[in-house]
Amino acid sequence: MYDVVIIGAGVSGCAIARELSRYRLKIVVLEKESDLCEGTSKANSGIAHAGYDALPGTLKAKLNVEGSRKMESLSKELDFPYKKNGSLVLCFDEEDVEKLEELKRRGEVNGVKGLQILNREELFAIEPSVGERAVAALFAPDGGIVCPFGLTIALAENAAINGVEFRFDTKVVGIQKCEEGYLVKTGKGEIQTKIVVNAAGVYADEIHNMVSAHQMKIVPRKGEYLLYDQRVGHLVSHTLFQLPTALGKGVLVTPTVHGNLLAGPTAQDIQDKEGIDTTSEGMAKVQEKALLSVPQMPGRQVITSFAGLRAHIVQMPEGGREGDFLIGEAADAAGFIDVAGMESPGLSCAPATGEYTAKLVTEILKPEKKEKFIGTRKGIPNMAHASDEEKHRLIQEDPAYGNVICRCEMVTEGEILNAIRRPLGATTTDGIKRRTRAGMGRCQSGFCNPKVVELLALELAKKEPDGDLYSKIRKSGADSWYLTENGPEERGLFHG
User: Fold this and answer.
1) pTM exceeds cut of 0.85
2) Which of 29, 79, 120, 382 has its CA 20 to 30 A from that of 214?
3) Which residue has the higher pLDDT, 227 or 496?
């Protein structure tokens, strides 16, 4: 019997797990994919929104402002990349300046500090690369940027250190109400629990509908992005938004915490909950709209494109509020807690979402707090940005930190081995990429991937010494194998 089953190892699920790990509870996180952060949490803008956009009085507004305020201190506790760079909402028509004023008033009601309307001269003084058509901007100094997978992985590792169990490749296929809680049926067996927390992203409606007669429907909203080389990452210093539309905040241009430049997303409602393909039309649209904000956006410096899905609720069950997050017990299923519809600004809200949801759980179970909760976590050393003294110390301790594997991002063998060996360590090459950035540079793993595969195979072989050295190496999960299984003469690394 578990006290809590959390379904979904994205940023919301991991934030909830971390907060609940403060208590004497038996907790397991179930994830259908092979690793943390495989859904919406890995493919988004990486923005810590200040909180001026959400409607006052909504859960979105409350959690956005609270989460954004917690992000900087949390980044220091859990050692993940975050920067408070400030954001600008650009206005390109004098007649629309009143909309900036409305956003400012909304933000002030929400509790956002330091909001200012900048005129044209003030705007160009702090962001010279902005397009000539801009006439004004709303400046939010508390806006920030964060590494979305860095945040998610940090939360999960800290939860694991504090006793939370994680099970991957474990899909929930049914949930049955019991006399005491729920029986959660998975592809790998059944789990009995007192509380279920549904943080399943775009699949949260399917999980909810397993137990509740008040049906929910989520439509995935796809957003395509362009990522630019670090050599142009300095082009802007703030996150640049355009005045929002009914479909969201529009195409943004922002630096990333790793020094790249990012533009996107588009907004297209689709039916396929795995539909993360990119299109020539989507990429062209992102580039075209980005040029409105920054005319010098260098199309030839795009190093990759990607798409993410946002969980947009189109049919809200009883107890929910249209256009808002859905966080709370299902009306007809006591002990079943939805954390659903966590679209933008869900990433910004995560620290507050964790606390808010943990409070709902603890009010039901009334657990005792642990005497010795470990509240900090140390991330993987970053040799590319370490001081000379730190580099020397690490190499003296382990010479693998002196062997560069990924030349684009200057990632060393020591960092890759650390990523595999640490709590909830990487088991796929994409898992290594998200933890170390090996393969995220200009060549997009073209040179380093064979060596990364070799290191991963050697490390995983230590856990299964009798297995084929390379037979279980995957790019991301499911059937993304690097090797065929038709005999030695036909085996070989796939390229591309």
Assistant:
1) yes
2) 29
3) 227
Rounded CA Rg of the chain = 23
The strand pair at 87-91 and 136-140 is best described as: antiparallel
Cβ-based neighbours of 116, under 8 Å, separated by 6 or more: 104, 138, 139
Instruction: Name residue, tokens 């991002």.
Output: 409
Of 87, 335, 70, whose CA–CA distance to 196 is shortest?
A: 335
Q: Give 478's pLDDT tier (boundaries 50, 70, 90).
A: confident
Q: How far apart are CA 451 and CA 445, in angstroms?
A: 10
Q: Return the residue matching tokens 């038996």.
A: 26
377-412 burial, b if ≥16 CB within 10 A, otherwise e? bebbbbbbeeeeeebeebbeeeebbeeebbebbbbb
The span from the CA of 163 to the CA of 166, in Å, is 10
Largest CA distance in the chain: 71
pLDDT (tens digit per residue) in 230-277: 999 999 999 999 987 555 567 999 999 999 999 999 999 999 999 999
Is the backbone peptide bond immediately before 345 cis, with ω within 30 degrees of 0?
yes
CB proximity list for 486: less than 8 A, separation 6 or greater: none
pLDDT tens column, 316-366: 998 899 999 999 999 999 999 999 999 999 999 999 999 999 999 999 999
- Number of residues written out for the chain: 496
The CB-based long-range contact list for 386-395 (8 Å cut-off, 24+ gap) reads none
For residue 454, the Cα-to-chain-centroid distance in whole angstroms is 27
49 is annotated as an active-site residue = yes
Q: pLDDT by residue (tens digit) across 130-172?
A: 999 999 999 999 999 999 999 999 999 999 999 999 999 999 9
Structure tokens at 428: 């796929």
- Alpha-carbon span 435 to 185, nearest angstrom: 31
Contact in structure between 112 and 142 (CB atoms under 8 Å): yes
d(CA 156, CA 169) in angstroms, rounded, equals 16
Token pair for residue 337? 């807690």
What is the distance, to the nearest Å, from the Cα of residue 108 to the centroid of all Cα atoms in its chain? 27
Q: Please, how many CA atoms are within 13 Å of residue 386, restricted to the half-sphere of its CB?
A: 20
C-beta separation of 72 from 143 below 8 A: no
Q: Count CB-CB contacts under 10 A for residue 189.
A: 9
When pLDDT is cut at 50, 70 and 90, the band that residue 487 belongs to is very low
Q: What are phi and psi of 116, to 5 degrees?
A: -140, 145
Strands (E) located in 54-129: 82-83, 87-91, 116-119
b or e along 206-240 (b: 16 or more beta carbons within 10 Å of the residue's beta carbon)? ebbbbbbebebebbbbbbbbbbbbbebbebbbbbb
Helix residue spans in 422-476 (DSSP H): 429-436, 449-463
